[in-house]
Amino acid sequence: MADERKMAVRRRASLAVPPPAMTTKELFGVLRRHMLLIILLTIIGLAAGGGSCYLLRTALPKYTARAYIEVLPPVQTDPMVMTTPTVQKDIRYGHRLSVASVIKRQGTLEALLRRQVVMNTDWFKQVDGLSWQIKYLNKYLGVTAHRDADYIEVSFTCRKAQEAADIVNEMVGMFISSEVEKAQAEVGGKLEDLDARRIRVEEDLRTAERALDEVTTDKQIFDLRIPTGSAERNVITVKLQQLELEKTQLDLITRQLEADKEILEKRKVGAIDVVTQNAIENDAVMLTLKRQIHFTEAQLAGLRTKFGPNHREVRQTQELRDELQLRWEARADEIGNRTRQANYDNANDRLVVYQQRGAELASLLQKATADQKNLDIARIQYAQRLTIRDERIAMLDTIKESIEKMNIMYGDPDTPKVRPLSNAIKPIEQDFSRDWLLWFPLGAILGLLLSVGIAFLVELANDIVRTPRDVSKYLHIPLLGVIPDAAEDRDVRGVDLTRVVSQAPYSLTSESYRQCKANLTLSGTGESLKTILITSGAAGDGKTCVAANLASAYVAADKKVLLIDANFRQPTLNKIFPPSGSGAGFGLSSLLIGQCGTNEAIRSSGIDGLDIIDAGGLLPPNPAELLGSALMVETLAELRNSYDFIIIDSPPVLLISDPKVLAKSVGTTIVVLNANVTHRGAALRTIRELEEVNANVAGCVLMAAPSLKGGYFQEQYKSYRRYQEKLQAAGIV
Fold this sequence. Notes:
The longest helix has 100 residues, at 312-411. It contains 26 helices and twelve strands. With 733 residues, the chain is of the alpha/beta class. The strands form two sheets. It has an eight-stranded mixed β-sheet, sandwiched between helices. The protein has helices at residues 2-15, 24-33, 35-59, 89-103, 106-113, 116-119, 122-126, 130-140, 161-219, 235-267, 274-281, 284-307, 312-411, 436-461, 468-475, 500-503, 508-523, 543-556, 573-576, 588-592, 598-601, 623-627, 630-640, 658-663, 680-692, 712-730, and strands spanning 63-71, 141-145, 151-158, 418-422, 479-484, 531-536, 561-565, 602-607, 610-613, 645-649, 668-674, 697-705.
């Protein structure tokens, strides 16, 4: 019993596990089961899409006209230079966005609504009220700034094609005109400012020119240009330079003469210098005396040789020579003194002359320096005022050039930075939202999605346990067998379903019961399978049918089986296996209240190996107490020795408490679920009720399981029938 309780606890824990997700096969199975609904709703959706498109195209036509505005780069260009400015892509796109926002501004939309062309349209008359018209324009007037192209797309949608084109063209024309007027007003304001500046600069230029004339007049110097070369020097500058050069040369000569005078003064006394010696030697008298002295010395030498040194003629000649020598020396002294004095006097005279010239040059140089200083001052003033005049001239030229550019820009169509690229033309086709190619597939897709949604909604809303997958997914208990729906098994037509194993042994239904018997045999120990309780959650689920056919399956396997009807309130075994003989009035109730013994309560079913204990003819007042009594336990213990299997057909668990009392006394309990009526909640409550009394629930049997499309049971039907056909062809069946 402890092991059985542990198994019950594990089963309860398994019930808390969330159900697994639907597999791909199950998804396709759902689609196959509802294929007719899906096809029908898809066709209806296709037709609805076409009908909706026809109604929209007829009753609510929709035309969209488009025009394009070119947006130039947001930089100021020079109209005199034929170049294209380079602007970053993001900056240009941002400028297009700002222009698009200006077009969509409420003020622009209100201005558009005041245009006569717009007021004459049917759209204006149909959309009554300014606020509604603004809302309509905000919704259907599209202004799109393209990111990769330098233009803005302006579109408008309404019911009439021509009106859509007219309103778009009116908006584009109005916006371009307003931008042109705004740009011209801006350029005109700049022109007025430039013209005022031109007048002021011209007055400043005239003042600067008068100032230049004043410098020339005041200084009486008419050549005040700053020389750029030696050939362009001013006369005053040239004269000053000449005087400075002459003064420099005169100073050199004067210093040389002073030095010479000092030297000559020193030479007046002392030895004769070379210059004086040259003067002496070049004197004619000195040359004559020198020749006479040489001649006399020659005579004296001859006479001495001839007469000796003491001869009178020798002495006379010697005296003549000495006299000539004295005369020569006196003449030399006279010439030397006179020459040195003359040189000194000459140097002194020259020095005086040059000193006088130096004084004159100093006076002239002072005057020339003053004139040069005056010239420099005049030139500085002239240069300053000339700079001012040149600046005014340059400024005036710049202003005139700017005025010329502004005049060009005033009439330049590129000045507003926007210009029409193409006007809107009357659209021929309606919008894509009114296209057949959109509505037909859209309707079909919506119908398909709706049908698929309904199919899955039906599947999800249906909480009946219909398939083995539902048992494993939601109930988490072993599935002992799946009994197919009898309406789908042609081999059991006209056969009593409670005795299908014996009456139609080669049918799929009969085989399903035998599989259930085999699974049950393999699911527990031999002792626990001696007593088997067959129950269900509600009446009519097929528990009696399972009990009878399971008993027949065991009998067919040469087992001795006792089938007990424990449903005192609605006994059915006496109808399936009609009683005969004298013991027909006894049953389980009679046995438990002591009216009869065990042998008297047991009767034959008419099938070898199968005995029956009916419910009894009298409904006891306390059936639960009887079923849970010690006598019931003793009776089952006694009958185990006589039968291989004891199968008990009990009442429904959710209606009365009898099955729970019996479940405590038997070894194995089987829950019968009906694929047509048993809900998941009822099945879970049934299992929970049994496990709360520690019943050994071996598993469940799924009755009347339909062969759903996409399910494996339908394939099982086909495979089993093919198998049976082969056996029949071989003569085995």
